[in-house]
Specification:
The complex is a heterodimer of chains A (227) and B (336). Chain A has helices at 35-43, 65-71, 88-95, 104-113, 115-119, 130-142, 160-175, 187-193, 211-216, 218-225, and strands spanning 2-4, 10-12, 24-28, 48-50, 54-55, 58-59, 73-76, 148-152, 179-183, 196-201, 204-210. Chain A is α/β, with parallel strands linked by helices and 227 residues long. Chain A has a 6-stranded mixed sheet with strand order 7-8-9-3-10-11, with helices on both faces. Chain A has a 3-stranded antiparallel sheet with strand order 2-1-4, with helices on one face. A two-stranded antiparallel sheet of chain A has the order 5-6. Chain B is mainly alpha-helical and 336 residues long. The longest helix of chain B has 38 residues, at 2-39. Chain B has a two-stranded antiparallel ribbon with strand order 1-2. The radius of gyration of chain B is 21 Å and the shape is globular. In chain B, helix 1 (2-39) packs across helix 11. Chain B has helices at 2-39, 46-66, 77-105, 110-131, 149-156, 166-188, 190-200, 202-207, 212-237, 242-247, 249-258, 264-282, 286-292, 311-325, and strands at 145-147, 164-165. The chains are: A alpha/beta (227), B mainly alpha (336). Chains A and B meet through helix 2 and helix 3 of A and helix 7 and helix 8 of B.
């Protein structure tokens, strides 16, 4: 994929990311490496100059973001990832906005995955704690039963305890056979739960490999993980 | 007996008129708050959009009267409502398509959109003057009173009469029905929830697959209902004079802000807060105290806090006080 904003320079060039169902992939890299841009390109928030986005064998590069959501690609933004003025249940309902069928079963599945949401189902999300909000955000994104779930820095600004809890939830989501792509700053923690990782530097794949490989790779450690 | 007389006096001259006026303001205030919540700008054309919708109702009322179609004891204007609403919605969607959409697509600042709405206000005013003129018109027909003062006096033997105008009853009943449907729609239906979601977090709404075009269109459609019905009810109760509608924008904005802008239920209650405040403060209590106090203490003056000429000062003062002390509105609660 090659893409950039407007007519400006390419932010990402010839970079390639793939994820299988039931797999967690971490995209790592220093600031300005184009991590978030990769996600936006996959979501269709900016147009590709070359390359393609393929989901379940189907080329979705030309579709609008809404249509991509319909095809099963779901996104949790870094900030403002919940509807703070709506209740937990309404958040889930809006997440399933594109579903025509009965959503109550899906809501029950989400409640099984995140039991706390069932307890708080009629509470306004703005009144929940940070960790609970992240669960609402994940739950909302899972309502369309996506094949790929993209998380933009899920651990940004949460405490270490909440981070552990969150990773635990992400692993549970993975077990439901969803492919997860995660952009992360906390490289070590992210790689510890990821199956594979990509390290982007100035918009290109610099390194890729399994979590362990990357953690052990001396060059990655030196340039990026801090020794 | 004296106490009863005093209560009836208050009911007749303050509480019932305030309930009616409050309902009319409430509809306008919900209109303001919806546009603000979803489209994110203060719509200064509110008063004149209400006037525009009412104009259709007035013209159609004259037409229906001329061909002899009526509702008997109810005002003819009620049959014209659906047509006036449709005309109003078309006008709003037309304005949105050719004026507001450009600024929305370019993501203009809210203040820029507000200024654009001032332009829409002037144009709408001009169109109204060309079509119907600036004069005061009454278009109420049918039975005027449900309860006349003289009948009430006969029935109860009290000195004070209680009058209930049919327009007052119609206003309150229609407002209750309309507002109940609106809140049911916003809170219980999928489309209503998607509107609230869009108002709360636009980007995430887009990511969830909510179509912004539909939300915007729906907002104008609801606004068309609120503007036309609010305007017609006000016109039936008082009279239809375009300039008065423009003036009403101050209490309507005050009501929306008192209720916490963006919060429809707050706007609904805010309408009554403003109406009751205006009427209670400008009412002359002389007769009321004459009933209650012994003769020696009876007041010589009118006991009126402010002349009715200053009723807009009341809304304005409330507006300023709320903005100073509770800028998010006096009612807690979720936004749309």
């Amino acid at each position: 994929m090659t893409a950039g904003y407007g007519n400006g320079p390419d932010i990402i060039s010839s970079c390639s990311i793939n994820v299988d169902r039931g797999e967690i992939v971490a995209i790592l890299g220093p600031n300005g490496a184009g991590k978030s841009t990769v996600m936006k390109a996959m979501l269709g928030l900016l147009t590709l100059k070359s390359g393609s986005v393929i989901l379940n064998g189907e080329d979705i590069s030309k579709l609008s973001p809404q249509d991509r959501v319909k095809k099963g690609i779901s996104f949790v933004p870094q900030t403002k990832n919940v509807f703070a003025e709506l209740t937990v249940k309404e958040n889930l309902e809006v997440g399933a906005f594109l579903r025509e069928d009965n959503i109550n079963r899906v809501i029950e599945e989400i409640y099984d995955l995140f039991p706390i949401l069932k307890e708080k189902s009629s509470q306004i999300v703005g009144q929940l704690s940070g960790g609970q909000r992240q669960q609402v955000a994940l739950g909302r994104a899972l309502m369309i039963k996506p094949s790929v779930l993209m998380l933009d820095e899920p651990t940004a600004g949460v405490s270490p305890i909440v981070m552990d809890e969150l990773f635990h939830h992400i692993l549970r989501v993975k077990e439901t056979n969803v492919g997860i792509i995660m952009v992360e700053q906390n490289a070590k923690q992210a790689l510890s739960i990821s199956d594979r990782g990509y390290v982007l530097v100035t918009g290109e794949n610099k390194f890729e490999g399994s979590g362990e490989e990357l953690l052990k790779d001396p060059e990655v450690r030196r340039s990026f993980l801090g020794g | 007996m004296e106490l009863l007389n005093a209560i009836i006096l208050l009911l007749n001259y303050t509480i019932i008129p305030a309930l009616t006026y409050g309902s009319q303001l409430a509809l306008g205030a919900i209109f303001v708050t919806l546009i603000y919540g979803v489209l994110r700008f203060a719509n200064f054309a509110t008063g004149d959009m209400m006037s525009f919708g009412t104009m259709f109702a007035v013209l159609l009322t004259y037409y229906f009267q001329s061909i002899g179609v009526g509702l008997g004891i109810l005002p003819t204007a009620l049959i014209t409502l659906p047509f006036a609403i449709i005309a109003m919605i078309f006008y709003m969607l037309f304005i949105d398509r050719f004026v507001f959409r450009y600024y929305r697509v370019n993501k203009s600042a809210p203040v820029q959109l507000a200024m654009v709405s001032v332009g829409v206000m002037f144009v709408t005013q001009a169109i109204i003057r060309i079509i119907i003129g600036p004069f005061d018109r009454r278009f109420l027909d049918g039975e005027k009173f449900i309860l006349k003062a003289s009948e009430f006096k006969e029935m109860t033997g009290l000195n004070e009469g209680l009058t209930i105008k049919s327009t007052q009853a119609i206003t309150v009943v229609i407002t209750i029905i309309l507002v109940s449907i609106l809140f049911w729609f916003l809170n219980k239906t999928k489309t209503g929830t998607s509107m609230r979601a869009y108002s709360d977090n636009e980007d995430l709404a887009l990511l969830s697959g909510i179509d912004p075009k539909k939300v915007v269109m729906l907002t104008w459609i609801i606004a068309g209902f609120l503007a036309t019905i609010g305007g017609v009810l006000y016109g039936l109760d008082k009279s239809y004079k375009p300039f008065v509608y423009f003036n009403n924008m101050l209490p309507i904005f005050a009501a929306a802000i008192v209720g916490g802008i963006g919060n429809p239920f707050g706007a609904f209650l805010g309408g009554y807060v403003i109406a009751f405040a205006e009427i209670f403060i400008t009412y002359a209590y002389k007769k009321f105290f004459t009933y209650l106090l012994p003769e020696s203490l009876a007041p010589d003056t009118l006991v009126q806090l402010l002349s009715t000429d200053y009723k807009f000062a009341v809304s304005f003062s409330i507006l300023v006080i709320v903005l100073l002390f509770r800028p998010s509105g006096i009612f807690e609660g979720k936004k749309i």
